[in-house]
Design goal:
By secondary structure, the chain is of the alpha/beta class. It has 22 helices and 30 strands.
């Protein structure tokens, strides 16, 4: 039984409209803004935040009456948007829309004592078969994705004409009734920008119409192409403002949240959002969670920047992020990628009689259509059943969590055996997939790693110097998988501050003294985060302080060689993977500060990793059970190996934190050719995924190909 569509006639009292602010207030340059991941420029950063739409957080413990009084005070700045949303900690969320002539800086609203947090709302941009059912659409043979992604198999089950067609909401520029998309299947929608009905009439921009056609264009009508779910109904919402940002139509987080709320209320089974921003925000996040809680599938485009950083709303955990594929099956060069991208579909689509549409904007509606098709074919299948099944049955891919297998997902959603991966065989070694996490330099690579692994509301992060980092050798282990290691120079790089803001990091630990990370960096970070500088008299003392800062006790610890930074990072990654602290010793001496830290942690056993004199082992053996770990032996087997350049340690430093989060092994590789020992290490680890840290300059593709071959080798050496 599908939702009954209830056409809208009024705004249902959503907005509390109040008089315009009497005095215009200028937004300070760069106030509360973040920049696009790709360039880090401050000028571009300002364009990713709306000067007019603001998101306000009211603490969860604020009494209801006091919260209402706060909302009334906020109304003095403009319109209050209250969708009854809360963030992931239960705090109440409100939107405030100030008049275009009188934008307000977030600092003004934050001055209210009852307000916990304020941010300018992020801006989102548009991201620009045979032997099956016999259809007469003339461009059907160009739609290779229909066969590759098993859409035609669902058509064979009766999916072309559904008895009870589901509703797909399209939050975009609006949808026109055109040839190939008749008005009889476009339901009365809503123009969020103008606060008026939208009846499938002329849209200012064709983007939304093209998205709708990929999902649900008419089939067997002799015109152009066929949509994935040809009988599905389209519920259009105009959420794109006519104000242009970076030459593309743009929308703020408040508009998207309103559109999601309306779509759920109007009976949509699937919501398609082919829009994106590099900035996360609690308001859209909460709206998406509410929709999923109501049983609605929310699907969004992963983005077209060709990077691994998350794009929002696709990057929220409950949203199905969709990447783009080339016809070869490889990731399209422009698609965003990473494990956070749940599935993938064609990047380029023929649309209508002659046109084509490029971008993950058009990958997403293929998945939206597949979800709706599965729901329409069987009343027992719910939208979230299809979402779960798409994740479970996706074909393996080196750039995404999987790729769309629509018929297999439908079978799994109905409780049938969907079978194995295409081409699965019991013969031979398991294939190793590869993912590269890289930026233009070491600072940006560390930022990419952080954005890929950690979500908003991350508790802690370490900031270390990007140039010479002995103080940070053990930082990855100290983090216990709970946050990233980021880098700074003599200033706080934009990429680093962006990530800290994106992840809403609570506490920043600065590893090392003022010579390592200067005071101006500390002051800049302290303006937005709780900052603690962790520093000893030298690298040994800093490692001890980091361990004591992050561990109240630990039955085991790893001690690594302070004089061999590469081996120290390998040992720190081992400690991070085990969830225990790492400490430093000299090759011929156990410093007293390390021994005292082990006592304070109440450790009973120590893993000694490195090439130490017997004096160090003997000193430890007096109090602890000591295990020797030879760096010449391979790490223990792991599902994932992190590959970093052997002689440039910055990427490996960021990788030690990732090793803790993913329980992955860290392997350091020579860029000019793998040594026999490195090949043996990869064979013993035997990963199913190789995550490359750094770009092609750090580790060229041919080296990674050799590493994959080595990892699939059946031979192995003893594990340490």
């Amino acid at each position: 039984m599908h939702r009954e569509h209830q056409p809208r006639r009024t705004l249902r009292g959503l907005l509390l409209v109040v008089g315009a602010l009497a005095v215009a207030v200028a937004v300070p340059a760069g106030a509360d803004t973040e920049s696009e991941h790709s360039d880090g420029g401050q000028e571009a950063a300002e364009l990713w935040r709306s000067p007019h739409d603001v998101i306000v957080t009211i603490p969860a413990d604020e009494p209801e009456e006091a919260a209402e009084e706060t909302a009334e005070r906020l109304a003095g700045y403009g319109e209050v948007v209250d969708l009854d949303l809360t963030d992931r900690e239960g705090n109440r969320l409100l939107g405030v829309r100030t008049p275009p002539a009188a934008p307000v800086a977030a600092e003004q609203l934050a001055a209210d004592e009852a307000v916990a947090a304020v941010e300018h709302a992020p801006v989102h941009r548009v991201q620009r078969p045979s032997d099956h059912v016999d259809l007469n659409d003339p461009r059907l043979d160009e739609q290779w994705g229909l066969v590759e992604h098993e859409i035609v198999d669902l058509w064979d089950r009766g999916g072309v004409e559904l008895d009870d067609p589901p509703i797909i909401a399209v939050l975009d520029t609006g949808v026109d009734a055109t040839l190939g998309l008749p008005g009889t299947r476009i339901l009365p929608g809503w123009d969020v920008i103008m606060n008026q009905p939208h009846y499938g009439d002329v849209a200012a921009d064709p983007h939304g119409t093209l998205v709708a056609k990929v999902a649900a264009a008419e089939a067997d009508d002799g015109y152009g192409t066929a949509g994935v779910c040809p009988s599905c109904e389209i519920l259009p919402f105009i959420v794109i403002d006519d104000l242009s940002f970076m030459d593309d139509p743009a929308v703020t987080a408040l508009d998207i949240a309103i559109g999601i709320d309306f779509a759920v209320e109007d009976g949509a089974e699937v919501i398609n959002i082919s829009l994106g921003s590099p900035l996360a925000d609690p308001y859209t996040d909460a709206a998406a969670r509410e929709a999923v809680d109501d049983g609605v599938a929310v699907v969004a485009s992963a983005g077209n920047e060709g990077i691994s950083a998350r794009n929002y709303p696709a990057g929220y955990p409950e949203v199905v992020a969709v990447g783009g594929l080339a016809e070869s099956g490889a990731a399209h060069w422009a698609t965003n990628y990473g494990d956070w991208v749940a599935t993938a579909a064609p990047f380029t689509h023929p649309v209508g009689q002659y046109g084509t549409a490029d971008g993950t904007s058009f990958s997403a509606p293929m998945v939206s259509g597949a979800i709706a098709l599965g729901v329409g074919l069987d009343d027992s299948v719910e939208p979230l059943d299809m979402v779960e099944a798409i994740a479970e049955t996706g074909a393996d891919h080196d750039a995404f969590a999987g790729t769309l297998r629509a018929d297999a997902a439908f079978e799994a959603a109905r409780g049938e055996d969907a079978g194995g991966q295409p081409g699965d065989s019991d013969e031979g070694a398991e294939e190793v997939s590869t993912v590269r996490l890289a930026g233009a330099d070491r600072v940006l690579t560390a930022a990419e790693i952080a954005e890929t692994e950690w979500d908003r509301d991350t508790d802690v992060a370490v900031v270390a110097t990007a140039t010479d980092f002995p103080d940070a050798l053990t930082a990855g282990a100290a983090l216990r998988g709970e946050g990233p290691v980021l880098l700074a120079t003599d200033e706080a790089p934009v990429a680093t501050t962006e990530v800290l803001e994106d992840l809403a990091v609570d506490e920043v630990l600065i590893a090392g003294g003022e010579a390592a990370v200067p005071v101006p960096v500390e002051e800049e970070l302290a303006a937005r985060h709780r900052v603690t500088r962790v520093a000893g008299g030298d690298r040994v003392g800093t490692a001890a302080q980091l361990a004591l800062e992050r561990f109240s006790e630990a039955s085991e610890a790893v001690v690594v060689d302070a004089q061999s930074q590469g081996q120290a990072l390998e040992g720190a990654a081992m400690a991070a993977r085990r969830g225990v602290p790492a400490l430093l010793a000299l090759s011929d001496e156990l410093p007293s500060i390390t021994s005292e830290a082990l006592d304070e942690l109440e450790a009973s056993s120590v893993v000694l990793y490195g090439e130490f004199d017997e004096t160090v082992e003997d000193a430890l053996a007096d109090e602890f059970e000591v295990t020797l770990a030879d760096p010449d032996l391979p790490p223990a087997a792991a599902e994932e190996a992190l590959a970093a350049r052997a002689d440039d340690l910055a990427d490996a430093l960021a990788g030690t934190a990732l090793a803790g989060a993913r329980e992955a092994a860290l392997v350091r590789l020579d860029r000019d050719g793998l040594t026999d020992q490195q090949q043996e290490h990869l064979a013993t680890v035997s990963p199913t995924q190789l995550t490359v840290l750094g770009g092609d300059v750090a580790l060229p593709d041919e080296i990674i190909e050799d590493a994959v071959d080595a990892a699939q080798d059946d031979s192995s050496e003893p594990e340490r």
